[in-house]
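Methods — Computational structure assignment.
A single polypeptide chain was analysed. Its primary sequence is given first, followed by the predicted tertiary structure written as structure tokens.
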Amino acid sequence: MKQFRLNQKGQLTIDFLFAIVLVIGISTLLTALTFALTFTEILQYVSFAGSRSYLAADLTPDGQLKAANTKVSELLGALPFVNAKDWVEVSTKKAGNFGQDYKNRGVDITRNQFIGYRIDFKLPILGINLPLLGDSITPPNGGTQDSNFRATVSSYLMREPTASECQRFNNNVFRALLRLRGEYGAAMTNASNGPEEFSAINDNGC
């Protein structure tokens, strides 16, 4: 009976091609994770810069909000790959008091510690399909990669009272003094006809 020897020529080439595909795939995966984490850290700083601009006193609350949004827009406009297809997409960015959101989650909000800036974004760069590996990164809670690779960064630094808020506060104080009984209330009544004639000097807030 004639025996046949199995021909193994080219086996090393097949092993090499298989290995190189895996190496390239894993390298691509690590690169995508590196970019995603880097973008997240950068956006964290952007939210801090927006919160810092929102903190500073201004004439009105709208002025504080405009200053925060302007700073964030300037920083995002200078960043590469932000809002680029298949990289990073910023969905919402806003300043305000987010205490109610945390209260709905059962967090104690007795202090105003949730006033600042928040940025919501998604990372399409993580939705990659690699040869032999397929969908290597599984989105949280199932669903498609495009809809679930989302994150939120925020910075909370409080907010200084504005000039209009301080003036309103001083007017309320003046009206309260007018309602006082005794010589002090009478003297205030004789000195002024109302808070419109009362001039307050504000130093470092109210």
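Note: The mean pLDDT is 77.
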